[in-house]
Amino acid sequence: MRARLAAAVAAGALLALTATTAHAGPADGLAVDPYGTVAEDGTVSLSGSYRCADDSAGPVFVSATLVQDDRSAGIGGTRAVCDGLVHEWTNSSVVKEPAYRPGEARVEATLMQLTPTGPMGLPMPEFLATGSRNVTLN
Questions:
Q1: How far is the C-alpha of 111 from the C-alpha of 126, rounded, in Å?
Q2: How many C-beta neighbours within 10 Å does residue 97 have?
Q3: Taking Cα atoms as reference points, which of 89, 74, 26, 23 lies closest to residue 53?
Q4: Average pLDDT for residues 5-19, to the nearest whole number?
Q5: What pLDDT, in 10s, does the model give residues 71-81?
Q6: Residue 83 CB coordination number (10 Å)
Q7: Confidence (pTM)
Q8: Selection from 8, 59, 55, 51 nearest residue 26 by Cα
Q9: The pLDDT of residue 122 is above 60
Q10: Angular region, 103: left φ>0, alpha ψ -120 to 50, beta rest
Q11: Burial letters for 10-34: b for 16+ Cβ neighbours within 10 Å, e otherwise?
């Protein structure tokens, strides 16, 4: 029940999002779930939903950063499926030093596409959408 409610809330938030750059399509959006987990071994898991319509210019990823007190760490990265539908994402990473603890934190997530527009065709990031939210780590 909790997972269904969170998915419904995230999908509703996703529909309200607007893209953050001129490169993003009207169907690009990203939402962060209101909770995450931190295990005894330091594994942090965060989740949410996203939608993107076109990945023909290059692969698209969902990245997340967790901020708690004065700590900040990237928490994994998920390859996105860009078919115009809403999909769920989950990122996990082991963060030992300094370790995160259950309680309040902030998640900043990005839907980013790598396109070969840099010097010599090297992939450069284009930010399609962002989402941030205060979360509770359990």
A1: 9
A2: 7
A3: 26
A4: 38
A5: 999 999 999 99
A6: 12
A7: 0.78
A8: 51
A9: yes
A10: left
A11: beebbeebebbeeebeebbbbbbbb
C-beta atoms surrounding 1 within 10 Å: 5
Confidence label for 49 from pLDDT (cuts 50, 70 and 90)? very high
Q: Which two tokens stand for residue 43?
A: 């594994």
CA dist 123 and 117 (Å) reads 6
**How confident is the model over 48-61, as a mean pLDDT?**
94
Q: Are 99 and 116 contacting, i.e. CB atoms less than 8 angstroms apart? A: no
CA separation for the pair 104, 129 (Å, rounded):
24
Tallying the residues shown for the chain, one arrives at 138
* CA-wise closest residue to 52 among 91, 78, 73: 78
CA separation, residue 70 to residues 75, 95, 96, 100 (Å):
16, 14, 15, 11
60 secondary structure, DSSP code: E
Checking if the pLDDT of 120 tops 60, the result is yes
Which are the contacts of 74, defined by CB distance < 8 A and separation ≥ 6?
63, 64, 65, 93
Averaged pLDDT for residues 10-39: 64
Domains in the chain and their CATH numbers?
Answer: 2-137 (2.60.40.10)
